[in-house]
Every structure is written in structure tokens, then in C-alpha cells.
Amino acid sequence: MPKHLSVVLDLDGRTNDAALEALINDACECAAWTACVGIPVLSIYERSGVLKSSLPHLHRQISSTISSYYGVDNPSKPTVSLRAPQVPAFSPPTASPDPSRGSPPHLSILLLSESDGRRTLVDLTKTLTEMSQKHKLGPEDISAELIDAELSESVMGEPDLLILFGESVVLDGYPPWQVRLSEIL
């Protein structure tokens, strides 16, 4: 069972409300399926980044979809948090769990877009340059392992499984360093 699942969703180039609602519905269904099988981390890539525009709305929709799968009062219904690079995380407070039942599972969702890949690389390059100029880091200290560790920490680790929906394999700008060892379906 993967610990981190990633999906690539597509707005299909449309910008109307119906297309956005269809995209949100797809994200909600992916989150519910991920929660049902017990995968703790889901990253959702959508090229334009439109899903990041309203984390509270998306969180409500995802929570509603998960409740339709689990039932509203089911103690095993997972809690959900949303985050995106360069955007504050959204995780509303939940009711205190019954200590006799233990804490419910948690699903952490990361929203990614095409700009996250470039912006992250630019920010990391600037940081490493500044550290080198201030003699906090020598050029010999900059290695593939350091860059990989910094990228994983700042955005996410590599998904175990990446699911593409469509007839052909199109990563559509997905951050390439995140899929080196991922199985792609």
C-alpha cells in the first residue's frame, strides 16, 4: 500500500464555473478514495493552480464527500488538512476525540501547480547562492543529495504512486524531481 499517492487532474483548458466544480468534485472523490484505503498523504496536481484559490471551500467540499462515504458521526472518519507551497495550511479545529476510541486517521492533502516547480527551484537556488556568498556553505557542499533533501522538505517527498487520468502519459508540468522513483499508472 502506498504511503503517498499523487494524482494529476486537468481543468481541460476551460475556465467556467461548471469546469471548476467538476475539478473540485474530482479532487473530492480522489481524497475520499485515498482516505478509504488508508493512504495518509495525497498530492493533487492541477496545472493552473486554481484549486489553491480557496482552501476553506475545497476543505468543506472534501469533508462533505468523505462524510458521505463514512457517515457524519463515524469515529473512524479521517480528519483532513490542506496545504500548498507558498500558501498557509488549512486545517480547521476538530472536536476533541473520545480518548477511549483513539484518534481518527488523518489525510494530509498537498495541492500543487506548474508554478510550484519553477518557484521552488528558483527559491532554492537563491537560498543556496546567499548561503555560499555568506560563507555558510561552500560550493563543494552543494550536492544532488542536498538539493533533493531541500526540495523534499520544502514541497513534499516523492509519491509512491502517481495516477494520471487520460489516454496518454502527460505529466503536464508536474515537478520532475518528485517522480523519479514513482510508479506511474
Q: Determine the number of helices (DSSP H or I, runs of at least 4 residues).
A: 4
Radius of gyration, in Å, reads 18 Å
**What is the general shape?**
globular
Strand order of the largest sheet: 4-3-5-2-1-6-7
Task: Supply the helix-strand structural class.
Answer: alpha/beta
Give the biggest beta sheet. Answer: 7 strands, mixed
Low-confidence stretches: none
Element-by-element helix/strand order: EHEHEEEHHEE
Number of structurally distinct domains? 1
Kindly state the percentage of residues in helix. 25-40%
Enzyme class: transferase
GO molecular function: ditrans,polycis-polyprenyl diphosphate synthase [(2E,6E)-farnesyl diphosphate specific] activity
Pathway: Protein modification; protein glycosylation
Main location: endoplasmic reticulum
